[in-house]
Amino acid sequence: MTDQSQQLESITQKEYKAGFVTDIEAESLPPGLSEDVVREISRIKGEPEFMLEWRLKAYRHWLTMDTPEWAHVHYPEIDYQQISYYSAPKKKDDGPKSLDEVDPELLRTYEKLGVPLDERARLAGVAVDAVFDSVSVASTFQDKLAEEGIIFMPISQAVKEHPELIEKYLGSVVPYKDNFYAALNSAVFSDGSFVYIPKGVRCPMELSTYFRINAANTGQFERTLIVADDDSYVSYLEGCTAPMRDENQLHAAVVELVAMDRAQIKYSTVQNWYPGDENGKGGIYNFVTKRAACRGESSKVSWTQVETGSAITWKYPSVVLQGDNSIGEFYSVAVTNNMQQADTGTKMIHLGKNTSSTIISKGISAGRSQNAYRGLVRVGPNAENARNYTECDSLLMGDKCGAHTFPYIEVKNPTAKVEHEASTSKISEDQLFYCKQRGLDAEDAVSMIVNGFCKQVIRELPMEFAVEAQNLLGLSLEGSVG
Amino acid sequence: MLEIKNLHASVEGKEILRGINMTVNPGEVHAIMGPNGAGKSTLSNVLAGREGYEVTQGEVIYKGENLLDLEPEERAQRGVFLAFQYPVEIPGVSNIYLLKAALNAVRKYQGLDEVDAIDFLNLVRDRMKLVKMDEQFLHRNVNEGFSGGEKKRNEILQMAVLEPALAILDETDSGLDIDALRVVAEGVNALRAEDRSIVMITHYQRLLDHIVPDFVHVLSEGKIVKSGDKELAKELEKSGYSWVHDAPEGQTA
Fold first, then answer.
1. Residue B253 maps to a domain
2. Which domain holds residue A155?
3. Which of A296, A326, A473, B209 has its C-alpha lying 20 to 30 A from B109's C-alpha?
């Protein structure tokens, strides 16, 4: 091994900064999954009957399903009876009415993570929903948003306060039968965010949810539903962290987006779940189903994700382009280091006329990690003049990691135009030496080169998130270079 | 400024430099000439600290410090600049971003604050005139899609912004047509200063018509076999390099 690689390897072994545990009393269900557990979750949440029915149907269906094995990832079988399906910080009564009533220990947790829920958050102009293990602990700005008719609240609250919207839209994009993890999530999901933007409203601030897994042996099954009515616009941000633990933890979320006529949804994720240690011990299994329906004509959904965490990532944020002239976009940076595995990409399903989609995927692999892009572009028989442009670039750092590309293209309409470009490159010694000769140390040089590689994606992120993402890339990415 | 004493270096076990001796004083411009394979690029890479070159004997003293003990970036921060023979492309990183990061790295070493955005832009605009570069170059990715001439001018722009104490120009004339060569040479000449030394490495004499050196050294088979003033370069132009193999070991400058 060269000096340079050694030096870089030492940079790789960065501590995971969000790895602390919050010492807080929690109420958890004992590990195990059964109809009773599903009923108990629904009871704790005080849900209407239709929710419980839906959960039970999902649970019964899940029992008939098998774990998907087609992804390019390997892990021991998960024992679903060893997981606790509900954990919540203990609180006095029904829940905090205002931030003053939120446990200060929780506020400190989010502060440490760089997500202050207090006054300073107001200055930043971002409304935050903070989900701690299974429940939402604080949603800011609800009142101000309500003035515009915008609903932004924990989904468990929405189930009670806006059951008609939940019943109409929940599961309408990702049915509970969709896949193994979606069925599991539908049965046991405990919280998440709900957003409704009324007709003609442009949401005046970024909405964000910050997910934190704290308790041990607990799965997090959050559910997010965003509905943008005609001519509305919303930008939504999602961030995730978890403590360092030796055991693997399961995170199986479902996110559904619905865009009506001319509505636009921009959904950005910075995922930094604990990735496990350098030997692959511990870390989050991130098995997530994210899908958007561009139902209305000329609607637009844009997914942007920066994925640096998790032991295993399995997610394919997708867009179903139903409305004529609708647009789907997917911008992704997936970083894997050490023993991490990622199998991620997107599906663009063209159904309406003149629909178009863009896929820009940047995969970066270091250490002994495996990084796969898996994408599907499907053009239906009625999708006249559909357009797709796909670009998949992989960057390898070192010679023990792997990058893979699995593009699937199915075209059933002769007017379609589908383009696919792919490249694989390495950070070269030449690039590093050039930067060092200009005075940059190895760490800054790698960070700069990698950020350059990811620029097309990073520039799609809202400003405050872009800065966080760049720092995260710098931290989690610098690895052995060959 | 720079003192090279009995420098031996090998690449993959093969000895390329076999005892180089050379002294460069502040303000001097030295040209190192020689045939292909003489060790010219090895010398510049060893001075800049590139990986893969093993120094087996000798030392290099730069401003009183042992240069060979320092990491490449430490050398750069102390004012050692290498203008690359083949400047490297960095996709997605704008030229101005690299320039600013480089300047700030040098300033940090000097104990100065990061450069103010407006001051920086003014400085860069001013220096771009030296190499007749258009402002759009600042926003293009580092060397990506640049012509050969543009790449070399870009190297000189970086030198002009970083103001090194010791600049090593590695085959800066290669791949340039006569107009581009003139622009690059004018840029370098404008950067000649009492407290700045320049070492030019070149195969051809023509660069020296434009940047007139104080000293010329002939490198052959890893040794300096002859040293002299600018007239030596002209002699080489006439008679080629074939004679140097037979020449007795020359005195050093």
1. no
2. 21-439
3. A473
Q: Does the residue B252 lie in any domain?
A: no
Is there a contact between A454 and B162 if contact means CB atoms under 8 Å apart? no
Whole-number Å distance between alpha carbons of A285 and B248 = 71
Indicate whether A467 belongs to any domain. no
Nearest to B76 among A439, A442, A444 (CB): A439
Own/partner long-range contacts of A425-429 (Cβ < 8 Å, ≥24 apart)? A425/A393, A425/A394, A425/A395, A425/A396, A426/A395, A426/A396, A426/A397, A426/A481, A426/A482, A427/A395, A427/A397, A427/A481, A428/B88, A429/A4, A429/A481, A429/B51
Give the span between the Cα atoms of A316 and A290, in whole angstroms: 6
Q: Cβ neighbours of residue A331 under 8 Å, at least 6 residues apart?
A: A302, A303, A304, A305, A360, A361, A456, A457, A460
CB contact under 8 A, A436 and B76: yes
Query: Looking at the domain assignment, is residue B40 inside a domain?
Result: yes
Q: B1 — contact with chain A (CB < 8 Å)?
A: no
CB-based contact, A451 to chain B, within 8 Å = yes
Cα distance between residue B16 and residue B8, in whole Å: 7
Q: Is A262 left (phi over 0), alpha (psi -120 to 50) or beta?
A: left
The total domain count for chain B is 1
Give the three-class secondary structure for A57: helix
Nearest to A443 by CA among A479, A400, A398, A469: A479
Joined tokens for residue A424: 């694989």
Three-state DSSP class for B79? Answer: coil
**pLDDT tens-digit map of A450-464:** 888 888 888 888 876
User: Does a structural domain hold residue A7?
Assistant: no
Average pLDDT score over residue span A338-367:
92
Q: Which two tokens stand for residue A61?
A: 């269906």
Classify residue A465: in a domain, yes or no: no
**What distance lies between CA B205 and its chain's CA centroid?**
16
DSSP state of B67: G
The rounded distance, in Å, linking the Cα atoms of B70 and B48 is 10
Number of domains in chain A: 1
Give residue A8's pLDDT. Answer: 42
A76 phi/psi in degrees, rounded to 5: -65, 155
- Using a pLDDT cut of 70, give the percent of chain B over it: 95
Nearest to A4 among B48, B51, B92 (CB): B51
Helix (H) or strand (E) holding A143: helix A142-147
Is A98 near chain B, with CB under 8 Å? no
The shortest CB-CB distance from A452 to any of B49, B50, B92 is to B92
Phi, psi (5° rounding) for residue B152? -70, -40
For residue A464, being part of any structural domain is answered with no
Range of the domain at B206: 2-246
Residues 6 or more apart in contact with residue A27 via CB below 8 angstroms: A87, A88, A89, A90
Short-list A176, A225, A232, A231, CA closest to A203: A232
Task: Write out the two tokens for B15.
Answer: 């000895």
Residue type at position A105:
E
Task: Please indicate, yes or no, if residue B158 is contained in any of the structural domains.
Answer: yes
| CATH code, domain carrying B144 | 3.40.50.300
Q: Which residue has the tokens 């019964």?
A: A60
pTM recorded for the entire structure: 0.80
Residues 399-428 on A with a CB inside 8 Å of B are 428
The closest of A481, A448, A458, A467 to B104, measured between CA atoms, is A448
Residue pLDDT, tens place only, B225-247:
989 988 888 887 777 777 665 55
Q: Give the pairing of strands A87-89 and A26-28.
A: antiparallel
pLDDT per residue over A45-68, tens digit each?
899 999 999 999 999 999 999 988
Report, as an integer, the average pLDDT of A354-382. 93
